[in-house]
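Escalated from tier 1: S-adenosylmethionine holo job.
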Amino acid sequence: MTQGSTSPDSGTTHFGFRTVAEDEKAGMVRAVFDAVAPKYDLMNDLMSAGVHRLWKAAMVDMLAPRPGEAILDMAGGTGDIAFRLLDRIGTSGAPITVCDINAAMLGVGRDRAIDRGKLEGLSWACANAETLPYPDMTFDAYTIAFGLRNVTHIDVALAEARRVLKPGGRFLCLEFSKVVVPILDKLYDTYSFSVLPWLGQLVAGDREAYKYLAESIRRFPDQNALAERMKAVGLTHVKVRNLSGGIAALHLGWRI
Ligand SMILES: C[S@@+](CC[C@H](N)C(=O)[O-])C[C@H]1O[C@@H](n2cnc3c(N)ncnc32)[C@H](O)[C@@H]1O
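Tier 2 regenerated the structure:
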């Protein structure tokens, strides 16, 4: 079985390193993000020493959004990517759609938007990336940051992304990936499996959620495998850019 895939025969999939029934995974992922939502943004800064901000800035640079474009930020959680997109393109066009399966994450996002005075230019929607409530060819761009790893059927979510993109639209995924620098991979392993769960317990009071994070990263397809799966659903001109030695990677593809 390929990394990050499900087994259609047995009806099972991965939840971190555990094998679970396919129909259980979305609920388990939801429970993780229900638990971490209030401390999610603080934990991102602590876990990555702020580096996730650089990765997200790189994502917006690579997308190069233009005013007036219809953009879907899938698995948008607490709004980090959407806020950056909004800062870049302003509120003159259609609102940026922040869509996530988890109402608690979206709730934190809406509160943050209000706190920052971002009352226009964003619309919030609760839906599963595998069954998007949008007609074909709705968006000029689809972004997904640290979300694809969590969906049950990656290929279904990729196909949905392509479906809702207009011809000429672009898909951009920011996700943890495979470290390509020797020594860094060993250090990163130690950090992920020892420090992360400890930090999760200390700050968010939830060791298991951050153990899941480390495990789900290892289960996710590496750079080449994800690029191939994008091509398999019909995304073309796929480009990959490693960030921080492959700790994360950007995957860009087009619907032509
Ligand atoms: C690690 S957070 C990323 C949030 C945000 N994109 C960011 O970069 O800060 C992952 C998000 O994916 C969402 N998610 C998980 N499975 C999903 C699914 N099947 N459909 C939509 N969103 C999903 C979670 O609810 C969570 O908000």
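The chain has one domain: 12-254.
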